[in-house]
Amino acid sequence: MKKKLPSILLSLSCLIVYLFLLAPIVVVLLSSLTTTEYIVFPPEGVTLRWYIELIEHPEFIDSFILSISVAFGTAIIATIIGTMSALAVVRREFKGKNAIVQLIGSPLLIPSVVFGVALLQFYSWIGLATSPLSLILGHIILTVPFVMRLVVASLVGFDRVIEQAAMNLGASSIRVFFEITLPVIKSGVIAGAIFAFITSFDDLTVALFIVSTDVVTLPVRIYTYMQYQYDPIIASVSSIMIIMTVVLMIIIERVMGVGKIFSSKN
Amino acid sequence: MELNTRVDNEIVLMQKKKNFKKRRDTWLLLIPTLAIFLFFFLLPLFFLFVTSFKTFDAGTGIGNQWTLANYIQFLSDPFYISVLWRTIKIGLITTIITIIISYPVAYQITKAKPRMKNYLTLLVLSPLLISMVIRCYGWVILLSNNGVINQTLMTTGLINEPAPLLYSEFSVIVGMVHVLFPYMVLSIMGALERIDPSIIRASKNLGASNLRTFVSIVLPLTLPGIFAGSVMVFSLSVSSFVTPSILGGPQVKVMSYITYEQVAVMMNWPYGGAIGFLLILVATITILIYSKVLSKSEKGVAIQ
Amino acid sequence: MGYLRINNLVKTFNRTEVVKDLTLEISKGELISFLGPSGCGKTTTLNMIAGFLDVDGGRIEVDGQAVHLLPANKREMGMVFQNYALFPHMTVFDNIAYGLKLRKVSKVEAKKRVLEALDMVRLAGYEKRYPKELSGGQQQRVSLARALVIKPKVLLLDEPLSNLDAKLRQEMREEIVDIQKQVGITTIFVTHDQEEALAISDRIAVMYEGRIEQVDDPITIYNQPKTDFVSQFIGEVNKIQGVVVGGENGNESRVNFYGDEQLLPFQLRTNEKLDFFVRPEKIVITQKHEGEGFQSIVMKKMFLGAKTRYFLKVEDKDLIADIPNTALNPHSIIEGSKVQTFWQAEDILPSRNVR
């Protein structure tokens, strides 16, 4: 008994933290079912009315599609160029390497509000109109540091002897990269891509400055709607996003195991 | 002898060719990233920096004269200083609370069996995957005047009218802790996992109690992890925009919010830029202090 | 007429020559070992032959064609690595088939050859496994099959057995020799283990500080080492001192070892004090106190199964003698007692100052 008390206390405090962690998410899910005209928790009654009403708000669907495409574009480009820089940084010696590593890592240190302001000013100065591309360019800056770190981590533990073995068997350096190196560092690259996708899809701060009236990403749409309306539509939109995320996670878990994505050590 | 020179020339030529190719490939790998970073990161920030030394013009936003007034105005106005202080205060409180609630969780996860460990890690990290806007929205629902917390407090008779939980420093801190807590858990977990189990066994073997072992062995060894996590949480907290703007709004102004306000509402680009660069300064100083301490102690862990 | 010819090979790292003007010819079908301590340049040489390192001077030819300027993937050499270097994301089958795929061998043909190769390394039925599901020995066999299936011109083995445990190491080395002879492939075997080199090689190239000290068949290397390094590195030796007491005729000299005079087949100057080597197993001890040889004191003995190692002392010099237990019952020798010690004159190996 004497021995068990601390571990019970530990479990209890952890349980409270987990509840705290899940609380806002569960609250959003449940309050989307309320029958009231305004958002309330606990919900009064149960209805799917606010999901059906979404049909009358095609702007949410448009924003959703925009956000998905921007996130997709960002993830693809950031993963490719981030992996390329990681390769150069880990495997090559060149002058100014440290400076380049610092530069690529620095967006993590710059508050995204400041970056958003700077980008808005720059875009209007060079006359680049708001488009998915202008959003993607901003999001690439936010996500390449993550991709590079994750890929660097998996490249550092990579034993290059297997590349020699492939070369010895007659593979050109291009084939060695695509058939040997890439498959082995796959988990780092995929983790980078997922991270880039989520970061881009979730970004409010930078997008808030860049969006125009007809190019509005979903986080910006929800944010502005929240400021003027208090109906449960937001809860139903949010719930759909939560459910999608969970489903996506389950699929990823089935395909490759979540532990692998998060632990770059393996 | 002649033959040898010819052969050596061939070798030198091949090595030169190879070196050239290597260098060319290195730059080919880096150029896409460097180009994008130059044009869409460095250049914009540089322009904003230049702008922050310009005067304000009601028509175009940016005037023609050079001035230091934007920085001087900020640093001499008690209102703006109070915003800066609030930003730092919220960052500090958030950091302390995340340390306190992250430690037991990190400890429990590292002690768990592999399968359980995976699930718990997933549980802790999963909020990161859900949009920050949505998570903050959840807190809006919970903390609002007719939210479940105020309702409970009123029905139990503890308070007579709703407590102003939302749009306060309290709600901002709650949201911040919720958003930034996983980073701290990961950082402490990293430190805990690096501890050689034999050290703990050795300590217990020497007769130390569990508590004693924890206080004199485990805690000191995880300090670098706590420190690294704190720097990360603090710098993310002072620069975050989403959480304070949804859960605090105009009532709880922080640096990022007034940057946004100056640019998007007041159209005062130079002043917005100046506030932005002061914010960068705060975040950078934190990191600098961190790396200073790190190089002194030489046993810290790098920010992940 | 060498099949693989290495001429005046040089490699420099940071201005230090790690391979110095190395020349060697290897005949077709021969198994030659590069033997030497770590840092002797054996792996560097192998990597230059494979094309993983650029040569800084010299020439490498295979079958009359210069290859030292070709990239590694065009050299047609099969290599087996110390840590196996199997592709972790491919099955055993795909690992072995990879080289064939690169050579655009048809699927049917490739399958046939992979299965043959697996059969050869006694791993039939393992084709669907992944490398991490195999033991070290099995992984090394897959690695060997992968190297051989492309029918390379030369097989390069880089300390292939050093990650295996002792018993498996012996089994594997016999297997490697069997397969090598069966295929008849020209093979370079890099190792730091002299027993391994002695057991499997047609010839051994003993390397030291970037140079080849001696290339010979194992028996010659062992019995007639040409340099001090080879004498001391191959097998064990006792360093003994003798004083030349007189030259008998042109090619022989009379040398006194600890009071015992022997006629040695070298021409030496009288009155010089010289070093020689003698292997522990060439020393004979008896409990008699007369006849050939000299007296020494048994300081310690160590039973090693088939033989016993005696630590002897004579005139303050240590001597080690390995005596088969069939020749002398270890129980009969008491530590601290005196024994008669001698060796045959032809078992004396000369040191540098003798040559």
- The total beta strand count of chain C reads 20
CATH class designation of the largest domain in chain B: Mainly Alpha
- Low-confidence spans of chain C: pLDDT under 50, at least 5 residues? none
Regarding quaternary structure, what we see is: heterotrimer
How is this fold's topology laid out?
The complex is a heterotrimer of chains A (266), B (304) and C (355).
Chain A: H1 4-31, H2 49-52, H3 58-91, H4 97-105, H5 112-126, H6 132-156, H7 161-168, H8 173-202, H9 205-210, H10 218-228, H11 233-256, H12 258-262
Helix pairs in contact in A: 1-11, 3-6, 3-8, 3-10, 6-8, 7-8
Chain B: H1 2-51, E1 54-57, E2 61-66, H2 69-76, H3 78-111, H4 114-129, H5 132-143, H6 148-155, H7 169-194, H8 197-205, H9 210-239, H10 242-247, H11 255-265, H12 269-297
Antiparallel strand pairs in B: 1-2
Chain C: E1 4-13, E2 16-26, E3 31-35, H1 42-50, E4 57-62, E5 65-66, E6 77-80, H2 92-102, H3 107-120, H4 136-149, E7 154-158, H5 166-183, E8 186-191, H6 194-200, E9 203-208, E10 211-216, H7 218-223, H8 228-233, E11 238-247, E12 253-257, E13 260-264, E14 273-278, E15 284-286, E16 294-303, E17 307-314, E18 317-324, E19 338-342, E20 349-350
Helix pairs in contact in C: 2-3, 2-4, 3-4
